[in-house]
Design a protein that fits this description.
GO biological process, one term: protein folding
Strand order of the largest sheet: 1-3-2-4-5
Radius of gyration: 27 Å
Number of helices: 17
Number of strands: 20
Strand content: 15-25%
GO molecular function: protein disulfide isomerase activity
EC number: 5.3.4.1
Distance between the termini: 39 Å
Family: Belongs to the protein disulfide isomerase family.
Keywords: Disulfide bond, Endoplasmic reticulum, Glycoprotein, Isomerase, Redox-active center, Repeat, Signal
Length: 507
């Protein structure tokens, strides 16, 4: 799941004098600043608050977002002070250092950069212009707003969203300072307010001591907490802001909670049903089971079949398996029960907890014909093709729609052709959207990722440049030398120096 959820974007204009002073030139009519490796640090250092979108020119989500971002930049240019929106082409090789520094793995990713780069947060707001403007105006203001009246509370608190209020006898002391630090840390996730009088808040009783009150649109509507250690408050908010059962459907109100569901570290139980036909028969039973399972380390989600197409694609599931219960452990291992009935949920969950359910492994069919230069590997053939083949194997994990992966595919074809006469070398690829990646041996956090397994069993991640020459040199340096000596004398069995020189000539 893009969980499955993609990041969003940045803030706008600097005055003309500021633009000139840092030698940044925006195209005619554009309000979003274009940054790159040459001016990024200088521009960021001059701004206490700037929003930066990291994008790729080929990314469809980026293209759709661009006009909304530009509209928002225009509207925010008149803010006092102006809110600066900027963008960086993270696909450009010269900017890869910035992409690495900011841990960019998907496009677009938007970062809010404060205090000249000292404080960096994810943008987690809307993706249409008005929503971007509203979200960023809040982010540019104080992290927590004082509530002096019920009118203040009404203007700040949206009863459809989570709101975190601090109630204090005075705005001083350790509790208030820790609350302020927490609000600054979590401001991109939640709205905060502070007050001297709990009666001004729309829900809850008066309190006699400093209290953190979390207002929410589900499961009891509010919960109080009185441990003002920052770590304790953060853990409390993380747990209290996830519903007992998260609803996954087309209603945008539920989307923030779905994001939090997939971000939390628990095992995840996901029940997919057809809401128009089966919701009533499953919902109450499933919620009761979720309440009784708080100590099991499992979070629960109820998903509508119509909204779950991407989830089904990600998990390798089929619609004819619905009603379908899936559990995914933190290490990625999955378990499923297809065509489940409400009365079967609790017994099956008990069997899972007792270790009596076998894991489900997603794999494409093993290809009947596999005669292209780069061999296709699927989960079910991984053991035979990579681990038991006796070959030196370079294996790429890729996404079919990933632009970087598409560029690398052409290079790997050339590498594979170069080793066509070397029976000890195999270049292979695995589609990570259609196959599970075994945990432990391969750690894949972005795409494309390449690993090399030598014939003698050594496994090493390839982290060099994505060029034919560099990949060939890496393979020659890391291949099993004994296998190389036993092989015939193909083109690729030349000495490393000779091979390197011939590869350079070809390029």
């Amino acid at each position: 799941m893009e969980t499955l959820v993609l990041s969003a974007i940045l803030v706008l204009t600097v005055a003309l004098t500021a633009l000139l002073s840092v030698s940044v030139v925006a195209e005619e009519g554009e309000k979003v600043l274009t940054l790159d490796h040459s001016n990024f640090s200088e521009v960021v250092a001059k701004n206490d608050f700037i929003v930066v979108e990291f994008y790729a020119p080929w990314c469809g989500h980026c293209k759709a977002f661009s006009p909304e971002y530009e509209k928002a930049a225009l509207l925010l240019s008149s803010h006092d002070p102006p809110i600066v929106l900027a963008k960086v082409d993270a696909n450009e090789e010269a900017n890869l250092g910035l992409a690495t520094e900011f841990e960019i793995q998907i496009f677009p990713t938007i970062k809010i950069v404060r205090k000249g780069g000292k404080n960096i947060q994810e943008y987690k707001g809307p993706r249409e212009a008005d929503g971007i403007v509203g979200y960023l105006k809040k982010q540019a203001g104080p992290s927590s707003s004082e509530i002096k009246s019920k009118e203040d509370a009404g203007g700040l608190i949206d009863e459809k969203n989570i709101f975190i209020a601090g109630v204090f006898p005075k705005f001083a002391g350790e509790e208030f300072e820790n609350f302020t630090a927490l609000a600054e840390k979590l401001r991109s996730d939640y709205d905060f307010g502070h007050t001297l009088d709990a009666k001004l808040l729309p829900r809850g009783e008066s309190v006699q001591r400093p209290t953190l009150r979390l207002l929410k649109p589900f499961d009891g509507l509010l919960v109080d907490f009185q441990d003002f250690q920052v770590d304790a408050m953060e853990k409390f908010i993380e747990e209290a802001s996830i519903p007992i059962v998260t609803i996954f459907d087309d209603n945008p109100i539920n989307h923030p909670y779905v994001n939090k569901f997939f971000e939390n570290p628990n095992a995840k139980a996901m029940l997919f049903v057809n809401f128009s036909k089966e919701l009533d028969s499953f919902q109450s039973t499933y919620k009761d089971i979720a309440k009784q399972s708080k100590e099991t380390g499992i979070s629960f989600l109820l998903g509508d079949l119509e909204a779950s197409e991407r989830a089904f694609e990600f998990f390798g599931l089929k619609e004819d398996q619905v009603p379908l219960l899936v559990i995914q452990k933190p290490d990625g291992e999955k378990y499923l029960k297809a065509n489940i009935e409400p009365a079967q949920i609790a017994p099956w969950l008990k069997d899972y907890l007792n270790g009596q359910v076998k894991p489900f492994i997603k794999s494409e069919p093993i290809p009947e014909v596999n005669d292209e230069p780069v061999k296709v590997v699927v989960t079910d053939s991984l053991q035979d093709v990579v681990f038991n083949s006796g070959k030196n194997v370079l294996l790429e994990f890729y996404l079919p729609w990933c632009g970087h992966c598409k560029e690398l595919a052409q290079i790997l074809d050339e590498v594979a052709v170069s080793f066509a006469n070397d029976s000890d070398i195999m270049i292979a690829k695995l589609d990570a959207t259609a196959n599970d990646i075994p945990s432990g041996t391969f750690e894949v956090h972005g795409y494309p990722t390449m690993y090399f397994r030598s014939a003698n069993g050594d496994v090493k991640q390839y982290e060099g440049k994505q060029t034919k020459e560099d990949i060939i040199d890496f393979i020659q340096k890391n291949r099993d030398k004994s296998a190389q000596a036993d092989s015939a004398e193909p083109e690729s069995a030349k000495s490393e120096t000779e091979y390197s020189n011939s590869a350079k000539d070809e390029l």
